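Review box. Two proteins, two foldings.
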Amino acid sequence: MGDQGLGQVVSWYICTVATVPFVALRMYSRWSRFGKLAIEDFLVILALCCLIGDLGIQQHMWNLGLGDMSTVTPEKLKGILQMIVPGSILYVSSLWAIKFALVIFYKRIAVPGSRLILLYNIALGGLTATFLVIFFDILFQCYPYDKRWSSDPNYQCDPKAAQINYWITIFFNIFSDAIIIALPITMVSRLQMKLKQKLGVAAIFALGFFVIISSIIRAYYSHRNETMLTCTVSMVETAIAIIAACLPALRAMVIGGSTNDPSSYGKHYELSSARRRTTDPNRLGVGSGIASGPASGSRSKSHHNPNGSEDSLVTSGLSVGLDGRGKIRVETTIEAMYEDDGKSRAESSRSDV
């Protein structure tokens, strides 16, 4: 067991530990803002649990001699091979839990009735189908299971079955990542906002490209049967995916946004595929809440997503002050996403109380 192998084991723990604060902060942010967790939050927790479980399995394989297979006894080799199925299931489950969490999050902030809702429903169906295909292929590509560690040449798994699983996993994993990344980035590019804001939001999604790169590297080492490096890249890939899934919630916590308080001044952009001008905030994909002062005695509620979420990707503030007559003035700019003769424009509204 050389120093290089030991360094990879240390990297397994670094990847796992690094995800914990991100997940914890995400849960804190969600609970403090909404008083509850959504289904995508539980999926992120599930992904973290699978990552921790995968770490335990890989540590067990390391203890059996994974770092130096030339010293492994037949009994220890059997123990290592027995961990392949549970390890593979945890790896795939962790990645697909993150994929589901991201798509559900994107769907939650999409404008109801828009084309994106249909696209994300299709994406959820595709993720379900691909996960089930990979899951059952892992379970039954070689059955009975003792064929996997049998030393009898006449009682071993068909090598073709392993190749089929390899290509299915690689293709479904990379293809689904590319789709999940492409849809929101396309919508963000259409939002009418400052370039700095747009790049910041796109950067959150762009982390997914690192996940794809990790998947390709993992496929390379897996094809060469370099188990240690395959395990290491798997941990890196899963850790990056979990962190990327936590960033939108953390961004809302740092920058701020709408809250459950109906007097909130927060407002947010929703992802929309609309391409025509409209003055209805729900169709624009922009929600704003303006609380009036005592002079009016009335209050307007902040925009709530019909899906029951106030998640946001981009926030902007309001200008509140007194005019020359001593009245409260609330001024806000609603940056609408529409196209008029091929040009995007912004609308401004002002209300005096």
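Next protein.
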Amino acid sequence: MERLQKVLAHDGVASRRQSEKLIMSGRVKVNGSVVTELGTKVGVHDKILVDGVPITTEAPAYVMLYKPRGVISTSNDEKGRKTVVDLVENVSQRVYPVGRLDYDTSGLLLLTNDGELANRLTHPKYEVEKTYVARVTGIPTNDALRELRQGITVDEIKYAPAKAKIISTDEKKKIAIVSLTIHEGKNHQVKKMLNAIGCPVEKLKREEYGFLTLKGLQPGDARNLKPEEVKELRRLTGLA
């Protein structure tokens, strides 16, 4: 048995705090009766409705995917393009991507049906680091890298300080391989930050998410997270 607000958050209905507000406002029914008591506990056989819409209580699922380029980071696409959910068809639960990677960006993407953990992983408050490796046009100067490390403003949007370093350069082709570690997840953030220092991105991959890496995976491969990995993610986001 679990507390009702935890079940709602886990199912992705809302954060736990917002789920508590839903309950207190009388918008949640359990087995046909309105429930406003926050201490109410429910089980897998209880029928839960939010605003008249039933939710399903599934076993938690946590999946790591090596997203290839040319795949949409959503559960469905109105244009019929392949989505990340299409690549994890062997998972019986309904899982959703945690955040997103651009269509032309590859790399590590998490999918889960644990709404509360997903919300925390994407919230900058918990500062879960993500490391990207980019091939860029141009070779960043030390001053440019310092800008990224100190926190750069692009189009009036302030980005938090990042860990930035050059992995390799090709002076003849005027390109570089750059590693950038951030804990935010703003729209097109890495591309905008590198473009702002005069080094537009040619190719981008997310190689690390917190302590997780792509080791052992090829593009399109997916695996279930190990129990200790889930436990560590929960610890990182204050859910342990």
